[in-house]
Amino acid sequence: MTSRERIFAALDYRPVDKVPLRISAAAGGLHEHGQKLLDLFHGCGHDFGSLAEATLPDPLPATDFEPDGTYHAFRTDAWGTRWEYRIPGIWGHPVAWPVTDLDAVEEYAMPSSPAPLDGDALASARRTVKAHQRRSFRLDGLGSLFEKLHSIRRFEDVLVDLALDDPRLNRLADRVLEHMLANAERAIAVGSDAAIAGDDFGTATALMMSPETWRRFFKPRYERVFAPLRQAGVRVFFHICGHLEPILPDFRDLGVNAIWPQLTLWVPADLHARCRDLGLAIEIHPDRGDLMQRGTPDQVREYVLRAVEDLHTLDGGSWLYIEIDPGFPWPNVEALFNVATELRA
Predict the structure, then answer these.
(1) What average pLDDT does this structure show over 269-288?
(2) Is residue 211 in some structural domain?
């Protein structure tokens, strides 16, 4: 099997020749572990393209550090959100929001949506995708809706607005959605295999809102983004952390093909049975909150071996996902890559 064939088989719950793998060369881990982690990326490889172009992050400016050497940075992004960062390469916390008054939604100057590709630019992008697909699976990004809303407006205010079904928040969401729609149109235009959206809706014990609110506000908007992808034959992936069990069937309704869930909240056999019945493939992301930070290399190895067995990965329906965060001891990082390499030998 080529890498591309392997991922399509996994999505369709067909047997694969070896454990499929996706790696994210995330900046946080590279800031902490440097060249030795980059060497693991280059040596391991994955099914979603070449990691040969992965590089170390640029050095951080001296202005990002306190006099005692503590990292402490602030940035304002293109959406007008002011962020505070405490760990290099890791998402920060918003400290100032551009939308404090919903009456100003229409005047809010958000960045322009990505422009459609045409002419030579489109032809070049299609050639690039075709070359990628000779062996690897092509996955493009769609962006987020809920997470973008609570980065441009206070989180607690967004939750109140949702509960009230405020028409002004609905309008703000539709403006944000234009960016996701533009990304979907581009994925279709260039011939990508799949596109991924991501929004974390759950805590460790429950959804952050009622399933009814989610279905009223978010589900129809995702349908607007996903419907043209489905019609074009582009697979849809969705990342969602936290408790999602009440809305899991809704992802099938939306035509989602794969989810990236928080595995620690599930009994693996139950998750496999539910997702197989719903036609949802699973990204296996080893526990980053406890196992990778506080476990031992032997525990990391055992976790991965047990996960691919419990989720019947070689029968299709799942693949391993690796992303290295700051705080992962190096022996655990090596153990994760070693077992991934062993499973793909």
Answers:
(1) 96
(2) yes
